[in-house]
UniProtKB/TrEMBL annotation:
This is DUF1490 domain-containing protein. Residues 57-113 are annotated as: Disordered. The lineage of its organism: Bacteria, Bacillati, Chloroflexota, Ktedonobacteria, Ktedonobacterales. It comes from the Bacteria.
C-alpha cells in the first residue's frame, strides 16, 4: 500500500476502526461509553414508564369520579324539579346501603351474659 491510499475515506475509516479495536485504551473508553449509554437508555425508559403509569392512574381515578358523581347530580336535579312541581314522592336512594354494625356483648370467662 502506498501512502496515497490512506487518504481515501474508506481506507482511512477502516484503519481508524482497526486501530481502535487493537488499542486497549480505546476499547476501555468505548466499553465505558456503551455501559453509560445503556444505563441512560434504561433510566429514561423507567422514567417514561413511570410517567405513563401515573397518567393512566389519574385517568382511571377521574373516570371513576365522573361515573359516581354524575348520576348523583342528575338525581338531585330530578328531586329538585319534583319538589318545585309540588309532587310528594320519596327520593330515590343512591344505591348505598347503611353500614351494618354488630353489638359486641361483654364476655366473662368466654361466656356471654
Amino acid at each position: 500500500m502506498e501512502p496515497a491510499d490512506f487518504v481515501e475515506p474508506e481506507i482511512a475509516v477502516t484503519a481508524a476502526i482497526t486501530a481502535a479495536i487493537c488499542s486497549p485504551r480505546a476499547r476501555k473508553v468505548m466499553r465505558k461509553g456503551l455501559v453509560y449509554g445503556m444505563a441512560g437508555i434504561l433510566t429514561a425508559g423507567d422514567v417514561v414508564t413511570t410517567f405513563a403509569r401515573s397518567v393512566r392512574q389519574g385517568v382511571r381515578q377521574t373516570e371513576g369520579k365522573e361515573e359516581t358523581t354524575t348520576p348523583t347530580a342528575q338525581k338531585i336535579d330530578e328531586q329538585e324539579a319534583q319538589a318545585a312541581k309540588g309532587s310528594k314522592t320519596e327520593p330515590e336512594t343512591t344505591g348505598t346501603q347503611p353500614r351494618k354494625t354488630m353489638d359486641k356483648k361483654a364476655t366473662i370467662g368466654g361466656q356471654s351474659e
